[in-house]
Amino acid sequence: MLDQLSPLTQRVITALVLAPLAIACVLWLPSPGFAVVLGLIFCYGLWEWSRLIGLQRRRVRSTLVLLNAVAMATLWWLFRTQPHALLPLVY
Length: 91
Fold this sequence. Notes:
The protein is an all-alpha fold. Helix content is 79%, strand content 0%.
């Protein structure tokens, strides 16, 4: 069904579905849950971006996404346990 709709109509439908979900996440999820949702969205975006830049092999793309997820989890853990350790990243 969606393949019969114009690209603009598909984008509008997607926005109408995702906007309430995004607002609900911002308003009702606690910080760790919101961080997980954002992390999943970023990982999916990285997966799509890796295809756009020409990475064709699934193993390479999976490794890239996995390393990014580990980096995000490490930064979250550092922020929660030792926020002063992140100061060199800011200054």
